[in-house]
């Protein structure tokens, strides 16, 4: 199977390079790290390091989940170089915030791109966080004798049902991993049914719990002052929202303001590049608002969080929190652990 996959990916690469480049230049999307997607990732600096570990964390959630373990690894084994790849801008910004070291965008899973990336990084181990299988890259790692680890792995019922229909293919992919670190016992049973080797499965739990932090009263008060929120004003935070959810949130907010006229809404879209869309939405509804980066937001009922990495601290200001990806298809919702760990009604 992998022979035909590689053959197909060679022809796909010839089409992807010009089409994706033109798309990026025309829309402005994916310009950051554009050439990384084609395998032109930074060359790993081997000087002073015994081993190199390549970690792929798809987006911000996966970065947050892997950060505690990687920090622990760096403390125990300072002679190991950790290189992190991501697939989204939010993941890139989070990796820069939580992890010191090399960060780049993951190449597309085409044989020429993978071959080039592997030659430039020369990893001694590869770690994939949570989800997403890359058959071409796994084959390249296996052919070089580089162990691959699936870390903090989870599997939804929907994915399990879909993978069962492709069991021969999924079994080959799963057996390309040296170790499968699972969040739950159910996940271990599901992966075993899909063909994973029993001796490759390990129950490790949910590492996002290890990433949870605290926010001191001093930090919360400082942030409240920076945002110009009065001490007696209740706060409703809507975090990680998606298109189609903000209209529903604003409808609810307007109803709540009738009973709580001092209520402040802090709106934090999942993707910060959607801020202009939210500005137009608020203007169309004649709702006064300010952005976090504005010099003065006092007296505005809505604040747009247009910065990265502050949402957890912003949750500390709230009396109630809404977490996005739960009102629009396919749903499922983003991480509830952060506001819940702060004792917020979520």
Question: Can you describe this structure?
Answer:
The protein is an alpha/beta fold and 346 residues long. 42% of the residues lie in helices and 17% in strands. The chain has 14 helices and 12 strands. It has helices at 2-27, 60-76, 89-98, 111-121, 135-143, 157-164, 167-174, 185-193, 208-211, 217-226, 246-259, 275-284, 311-315, 337-341, and strands at residues 51-56, 80-86, 102-105, 125-129, 148-153, 179-182, 201-203, 235-241, 264-269, 289-291, 302-304, 320-323. Strands 3-2-1-4-5-6-7 form a 7-stranded parallel beta sheet, with helices on both faces. A 5-stranded parallel beta sheet has the order 10-11-9-8-12. Strand 1, helix 2 and strand 2 form a beta-alpha-beta unit. Helix 2 runs parallel beside helix 3 and helix 4 (111-121) crosses helix 5 (135-143). It is globular and about 65 Å long. It starts with a helix and ends in a 5-residue tail after the last helix.
């Amino acid at each position: 199977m992998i022979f035909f996959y590689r053959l197909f990916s060679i022809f796909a690469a010839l089409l992807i390079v010009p089409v994706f480049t033109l798309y990026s230049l025309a829309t402005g999307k994916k310009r950051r790290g554009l050439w990384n997607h084609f395998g032109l990732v930074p060359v790993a600096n081997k000087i002073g390091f015994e081993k190199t570990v390549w970690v792929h964390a798809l987006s911000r959630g996966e970065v947050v989940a892997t950060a505690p373990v990687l920090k622990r690894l760096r403390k125990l084994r300072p002679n190991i170089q950790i290189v992190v790849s991501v697939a989204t801008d939010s993941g890139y910004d989070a990796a820069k915030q939580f992890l010191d070291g090399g960060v780049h965008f993951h190449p597309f899973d085409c044989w020429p791109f993978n071959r080039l990336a592997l030659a430039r990084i020369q990893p001694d181990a590869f770690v994939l966080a949570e989800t997403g299988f890359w058959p071409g890259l796994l084959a390249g790692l296996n052919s070089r004798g580089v162990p691959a680890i699936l870390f903090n792995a989870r599997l939804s019922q929907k994915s399990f049902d879909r993978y069962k229909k492709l069991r021969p293919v999924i079994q080959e992919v799963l057996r390309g991993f040296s170790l499968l670190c699972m969040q739950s016992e159910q996940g271990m049973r599901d992966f075993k049914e899909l063909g994973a080797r029993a001796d490759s499965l390990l129950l490790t739990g949910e590492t996002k719990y290890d990433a949870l932090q605290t926010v001191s009263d001093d930090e919360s008060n400082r942030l409240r002052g920076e945002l110009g929120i009065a001490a007696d004003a209740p706060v409703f935070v809507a975090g990680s929202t998606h298109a189609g959810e903000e209209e529903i949130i604003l409808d609810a907010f307007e109803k709540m303001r009738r009973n709580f006229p001092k209520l402040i809404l802090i709106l934090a879209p999942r993707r910060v590049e959607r801020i202009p869309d939210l500005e137009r939405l608020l203007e169309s509804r004649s709702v006064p608002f300010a952005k976090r980066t504005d010099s003065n937001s006092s007296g505005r009922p809505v604040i747009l969080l247009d910065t990265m990495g502050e949402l957890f601290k912003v949750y500390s200001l709230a009396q109630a929190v809404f977490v996005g990806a739960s009102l629009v298809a396919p749903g499922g919702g983003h991480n509830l652990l952060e506001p819940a760990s702060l004792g917020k009604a979520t």
